[in-house]
Amino acid sequence: MNNIISYAHIKNNSVSVNGTPVFSSEKNATLSEFLSEAYKSMEISYPKFHKMDLQCKLGFLCTEFALQNTAFISENDLTKTAIIISNSASSLQTDKLHQHSIDDKTNYFPSPAIFVYTLPNISIGELAIRHKITGENAFFICEKFDAHLMVNYTELVLNDNASSSICGWVEVDDTAYEAFIFLVETKNNTNKNTIFKPLNQLVVTQIYNQT
Amino acid sequence: MDALIEKLKGQIIEQLNLAEVKPEEINPDSPLFGDGLGLDSIDALELIVLLEKHYGIKIEDPKDGKTIFQSLRTMAEYIKANGKS
């Protein structure tokens, strides 16, 4: 039996965990400002966070919020933990930043630190590094969040070698952003702080639309 | 030399996004990589770009980086000996 044990949603400068608002910022704060404030609110020290591009920061924070108050990292075999993320814009915003740095041939200083983020699945890598997760991973590009695809693929990896998975949607483009992360386990979790919802398309659609 | 070291501290913090590091916390003689500031290989590339962008220094042989980027002081000494500004 595959169960969702926690989920987090970040959009419109606010964060909710399992449907409950837990953090918000000024509506007119930029995404960068909002993410910095949200990071500080978590009281974690992970200097690499500041080096990430916006998409990675968003995915990182949404995952941290979803993991908070769960034993997902400590109780699962992280060699069998999958990470399955999707979005629509790929890494377009960082691609544009990189392009901007090489537009002017007389002022040609491409930044290696920006260039390394010109792939969407780097956000998966950041999560894997943070928590030493070495299981299966996949990044899908879809027009919008596709609960059917996400549930189907997650079930596929859970039926194979994986025993848990971090799944969701991490999108940053010029006009909007959104992150939705849910944690799935195959075993029964005894942690009283976690929710317990069966993994299926209806439930995933419901919790995605909840906030 | 001290003024150049202070300037480099600010440039490194900005260029490498070391948001949790204050200039006064950087010891000019501590290693930049490993135990010191804990920089990584991408940071090394950023330092090479920083030298070229701000001081007109192009490091032709990446092996030289090991000596140049040993500490903030070795970096400043290299800039003083080779820089254009």
CATH class of chain B: Mainly Alpha
Tally of helical runs of chain B:
4
What is the domain total for the residues of chain B? Answer: 1
- In the CATH scheme, the class of chain A would be Alpha Beta
Number of strands of chain A: 8
Q: Which oligomeric form is depicted?
A: heterodimer
Q: Give the overall silhouette of chain B.
A: globular
CATH topology of chain A: Peroxisomal Thiolase, Chain A, domain 1
List keywords for this structure.
heterodimer; A: alpha+beta; Peroxisomal Thiolase, Chain A, domain 1; 8-stranded mixed sheet; 8 strands; globular; B: 85 residues; mainly alpha; Non-ribosomal Peptide Synthetase Peptidyl Carrier Protein, Chain A; 4 helices
What can you tell me about this protein's structure?
The complex is a heterodimer of chains A (211) and B (85). In chain A, helix 1 (31-42) runs parallel beside helix 2 (54-67), helix 2 (54-67) packs across helix 6 and helix 7 (147-159) packs across helix 8. Helix content of chain A is 37%, strand content 24%. In chain A, strand 1 (3-11) and strand 2 form a beta hairpin. The model of chain A has no long low-confidence stretch (mean pLDDT 94). Chain A has helices spanning 31-42, 54-67, 72-75, 92-103, 112-115, 122-131, 147-159, 201-209; strands at 3-11, 14-17, 20-24, 81-87, 137-141, 164-172, 177-185, 197-198. In chain A, strands 1, 2, 3, 4, 5, 6, 7 and 8 form an 8-stranded mixed sheet that branches. Chain A is globular. Chain A is α+β, with helices and mostly antiparallel strands and 211 residues long. Chain A has a single domain (3-209), classed as 3-Layer(aba) Sandwich (Peroxisomal Thiolase, Chain A, domain 1), CATH 3.40.47. Chain B has 85 residues and is mostly helical. Chain B has one domain (2-82): Non-ribosomal Peptide Synthetase Peptidyl Carrier Protein, Chain A, CATH 1.10.1200.10. Chain B is 52% helix and 0% strand. Chain B contains 4 helices and no strands. Chain B has helices at 2-15, 41-55, 65-68, 72-82. The longest helix of chain B is centred in the middle third of the chain and has 15 residues, at 41-55. Chain B is globular, with a radius of gyration of 12 Å. Chain B starts with a helix and ends with a helix. The interface between A and B is medium-sized, with 10 and 14 residues.
